[in-house]
What we know:
Two copies of one chain form a homodimer.
Chain A: H1 7-19, E1 25-29, E2 42-43, E3 53-54, E4 58-61, E5 75-83, E6 97-101, E7 113-116, E8 120-123, E9 127-130, E10 140-141, E11 152-154, H2 162-170, E12 175-179, E13 183-189, E14 193-194, E15 205-206, H3 209-219, E16 223-230, H4 234-245, E17 250-254, H5 264-272, E18 274-278, E19 282-283, E20 289-293, E21 296-301, H6 305-323, E22 332-337, E23 341-342, E24 348-356, E25 359-362, H7 371-375, E26 378-382, E27 388-389, E28 394-399
Parallel strand pairs in A: 5-6, 13-16, 13-17, 14-15, 17-21, 19-24, 22-25
Antiparallel strand pairs in A: 1-12, 2-11, 3-10, 4-6, 4-7, 5-9, 8-9, 18-20, 20-21, 22-28, 23-27, 24-25, 24-26, 26-28
Helix pairs in contact in A: 1-6, 3-6, 4-5
Amino acid sequence: MLQVIPLEKGRERLASEAALRTVRAERAEWNRAAGRVLAEDIVAGEDLPAFSRASVDGWAVVAADTFGASASLPALLRLAGEVKMGEHASFALQPGSCAAVWTGGELPRGADAMVMLEEAETLSGGIVAVETPTVPGRHIVFRGDDTRRGTVVFSKGKRLSPRDIGVLAALGVSKVPVAKRPRVCVLSTGDELVDPSETPVGAQIRDCNGPMLTAACERAGAEVLLCSRVPDDETELLERMRSLAEYCDLLLLSGGSSAGEKDAGVRCLGALGEVFFHGLAVKPGKPAFAGKIGGSLVIGLPGHPAAACLMFCELVLPLLAALQGEIHWQRTLPARLAAAVPSNHGREELVPVLLAGEEANPVISKSGLIAALARADGYIRIPRDTEGLLTGARVDVILF
Amino acid sequence: MLQVIPLEKGRERLASEAALRTVRAERAEWNRAAGRVLAEDIVAGEDLPAFSRASVDGWAVVAADTFGASASLPALLRLAGEVKMGEHASFALQPGSCAAVWTGGELPRGADAMVMLEEAETLSGGIVAVETPTVPGRHIVFRGDDTRRGTVVFSKGKRLSPRDIGVLAALGVSKVPVAKRPRVCVLSTGDELVDPSETPVGAQIRDCNGPMLTAACERAGAEVLLCSRVPDDETELLERMRSLAEYCDLLLLSGGSSAGEKDAGVRCLGALGEVFFHGLAVKPGKPAFAGKIGGSLVIGLPGHPAAACLMFCELVLPLLAALQGEIHWQRTLPARLAAAVPSNHGREELVPVLLAGEEANPVISKSGLIAALARADGYIRIPRDTEGLLTGARVDVILF
Lengths: 400, 400
């Protein structure tokens, strides 16, 4: 029998191990940085924008010159020049004059507002007739309006969105300090497993956990060095675990973790390193285990695909986030249960759900099925000290 | 002045153009298929699981043999053999006998239930004493329970999740039919723009739209062939647009789309091909335009980064989804407005929001700022025929 511990305790044990490791940083070119996790705070090295600029096409003016202007009595301003895009305004504006400035162009010294192109008319002799009064600050983005020099624009631990890449580009951060991708090896154990490209013979089955876990690790920002299989041969498993642990940050096993002949994974882990736990008070996922071999963390997931997927979400995702120093990695959504879910197993229970608007429909299926899980949008947690949840109960859906 | 059309009309025009194009398919290896869009329906070629199997470690039995069994009066069954993992059960079970089967192993013919390892005891002479009655079907996953041969498992147009990759692997779909990535060229126009790695001189600014749009296109599944800049030189712009349109599906321009000297993009589009629209009744985003050059679609986004980002979400994202045949691509979340948003521009308005629980806080900032937008979680649409939304109004937040 397994000596189970609460799921939360298992997660905490892994978190405390991750906390012992420093997040390794590297520089990524801006076009490779989206989706990566920032490894340093980004402090603005300059004001953004770096100069006060027009936010419309039109005429830079001294606002007071336009007060009282109308179509019948326009303010007549002398055109002092044009500000070319990308160039400094070479002249200062005197009262009674104006300058042509395009959107994004620099405001000449002395000017304090813009008049839009369609609010004025160009007369002969270099005179601009302004027909609508403007007020100081109108249609201008002042230097530093977006970001002031010295401001922490992004804190480390943020996963970078396309918009963040735009901000970094604007600030000239073209080589972005990001966390190195954790290196993961995925190993499925079982005599019955064949490659997805092979046709099973006898009672063989195709390995689906390996491909699923590989894709899930990559989505979480990890680099998967290897996705392979090993038969139920303890000597071979020991050798594979020993050699893989030498060059990855996380070794992910699946299958081979239930009681009986198939404790090989956890026995090998004990022989090669340290076992943190074997057995969690959670359904599904009871036979999960974890430990380390040297500096490599090892997590053993159940062989049932649905259980492997849920334990991946509960144990591996937070670990991969921690190894990258990522702060807000989990997305949850409040919802109401569309049907009651009984639960009296004395264990925490994880139940996949389908979302329909603000309702969460529990997906109840036999253990080990994968197609039903693929349709689910996320899952809910039912604490171990309850007897289930009633229809209409408020739940937090953890999105896949 | 621009001849504006409603945003919805502009989107519809692009959708009808996309509908004229067939989604091109290719085969991706399973380890490259996650995040891609399925180009064909996936029909199960076999039952899943392909044989009835045990979902626990224990003893395959004829359930009726165990009825009435207890610890004091166990059912004594003759052990007929062990089913090896990955191999067919070579024998049929007779009443009064049982077989050792591990989790995932094939159930021998004649057996209709499992007794868990801990519910029985092995006695001498090849006898197993079952102390707990079981019922037919218990702890068994029957052939086809997960998926039946001939079932449409996934419909085309679905973006593949890691769990989907697991299902495809289980079904032996190791080369996955996916939509080809749309090829996109990103071109920022403006004399004032320099590369993000350069230090601006005079009133130059670093190009932030190019990097932002590139990352956003890639996240939407596109392949960005080029991200470059072109000065405000109509001859050069015409030549670049002509040559780029020859080898991409979508040419994305930003900047240079407001009135005045900077209509060059839309004039070049008119000279090289067809203009669908120039000007949308939306704030921000009014100067957006679209058209085609030969088989290449062209979208001109505003130069203001925030406007470029929102118009990307409204025009480009649905187009990239359509070019990949993707069905459900937009994620929205219901929320309540935390503050009133006035709007009386006679145009539809797009307002970025920050989410806090179920509340959406409007992010009101000057046009053209990007750092404020980076902090937002999504945005809301305010229809053109309203005068804004009151505090507490129910809104759908379109997530970035």
